[in-house]
Amino acid sequence: MVEKLKSIWMDGKLVDWDDAQVHVLTHTLHYGLGAFEGIRSYELADGRSAVFRLREHVRRLADSCHIAQMQLPYAQDALAAACKETLAANGLKAGYIRPVAYIGAGVMGVHPQDNPVRVFIATWKWGAYLGEEALKKGIRAKISSYTRFQPNSIMTRAKLCGNYATGILAKREAKSLGFDEAIMLDSDGFCAEGSGENLFIDRDGRIKTTPLTCVLPGITRDTVLRLAQDAGLPVEEQRFSRDELYIADEAFFTGTAAEVTPIREVDGRAIGKGEPGPVVKRIQEAFFAVVQGRNPKYSGWLDPYEVGGAPSKKPARARA
Questions:
Q1: Which end of the chain lies in a sparser environment, N or C, as judged by fewer CB atoms within 10 Å?
Q2: Which pLDDT value is given to residue 264?
Q3: Which tens digits make up the pLDDT trace of 290-300?
């Protein structure tokens, strides 16, 4: 459950948590065309707080709106500042940030015409998405009966609200069968992604991840690719089949929520030794060193903020 906090940023200002409401005729509620982001802030090793890759997330939100032909009413810098303002207002030294751009009430039907595009930013406390044990011991996954959509049916580069209906169904199916997470295949039968995570495998020290054919360009996915390359680990973006996944030495998910989560089993088949291996452990260690501010090489990925500081000025409306 999301713990109730003090404030939510809505249409340019902070409002009380209980007052952050939308009308039942909100267009996005009916038809699913809206864009959102999932962003994390961390308490650093020195006690400060910072948002991880905030600018990249806000840019992806703007990209998603552009793809969806939604005119984002705030500039990217203003939205980045609002994310930090909302964290500070809620006293969160570490937390999850959820900006949502959505089409408001007005006309109904599949064409929203001139309905306004509205934005809110909510924050809350959120630990390990799949559980602390999952980060340490890995999870059990199931190949889903639901197929990841192909890029000419739904815009796969956009993080759109309606895109996640398939992921919800895949996750429910996997959980009902006793698994922790689902893995969806693409329309050609190759491994695509989890219900809300990107997928990596390793065999003989070579790391592979699904290319950006039908999967979301994850910020954590990009982070892991960069960290692996900088560490001298062979890594490539290449399609792979489910049987190649079965015989991988290691497999893991990445995502803002999932962070770097090992996969120890798929479809009842142990991955490698059935426990997190040396490659995923090395990547986990490198990732958490970065987000906790213990690796100065990547300090540019951390956007600091102060809890309890003065609120920022109301952001001016501007073309994103």
A1: N
A2: 98
A3: 999 999 999 99
Q: Residue type at 320? A: A
Give the residue among 149, 148, 155 at the shortest CA–CA distance from 60.
155
Respond yes or no: is residue 208 known to be catalytic: no
Residue 245, pLDDT score? 98
Residue 205 vs residues 117, 183, 202, 252: alpha-carbon distances, Å: 47, 22, 6, 14
- Residue written as tokens 């910072």? 50
The tokens for 113 are 């015409």
Is 123:94 a contact under the CB 8 Å cutoff?
A: no
**Cβ-based burial of 132 (10 A; exposed 0-12, middle 13-18, buried ≥19):** exposed
Choice among 142, 159, 171, 208 that is catalytic? 159
What pLDDT does 317 receive? 44
Helices (H), the chain: 27-31, 54-67, 76-89, 132-137, 164-176, 219-230, 242-246, 278-291
The helix/strand/coil state of 319 is: coil
The 3-state DSSP class for residue 113 equals coil
Consecutive H or E run containing 103: strand 95-103
Under 8 Å between Cβ of 211 and 225: no
Classify residue 18 by its DSSP letter.
Answer: G
Give the chain's residues under pLDDT 50.
310-320
b vs e for 292-306, b when ≥16 Cβ sit within 10 Å of the residue's Cβ?
A: bbebeebeebbbebe
CA pair distance 41, 107, nearest whole angstrom: 37
Please name every residue paired with 237 in a beta bridge, in sequence order, or none if there are none: 209
Pair 59, 320: CB distance under 8 Å? no
pLDDT on residue 49 = 98
Distance of alpha carbon 104 from alpha carbon 101, whole angstroms: 9
Burial of 12: CB neighbours in 10 Å, binned 0-12, 13-18, 19+: middle
Residue type, 146: Y
CA 217 – CA 213 distance, rounded (Å): 9
Six-digit token string for 78: 């203003």
Q: Return the CA Rg of the chain.
A: 20
